[in-house]
Design a protein that fits this description.
80% of the residues lie in helices and 0% in strands. With 128 residues, it is an all-alpha fold.
Length: 128
Amino acid sequence: MKYLLIILIPIIYGCQTTTAQKVDESVKEDREFEELLSKVEANNKLSLEVQAQATETQKKIVTQTVEKITTLKEEVTTLKTELNEVKATLDSVSSDTGVNFILLPIPKDKENRSGLSSNHDSTTRRLH
């Protein structure tokens, strides 16, 4: 009896694995399709996360740009005001002083400077 049991157990076990049905091709395709669908869902989740991050980054950039534009507009307004003030000052200054004068270039070497001062004195005397 023992021997019979020892012989029957491997036969029974072998029959279970060998008599299994063949996996149909459509079942394999269905599994592959399900795997692809799960990968697509995972990609969609990641895509949503990336889009959310991109949206936040875009909002920050837009906010910074708007602030910069506002600052630049204020600066332009300030500069225009200053320009108008300078124009008004220049218009109010009389350009005719009634005194003739000569602008002479300043020489770089010291020797010519001393000569310039004597020339300058004579020129100044002639003007007065």
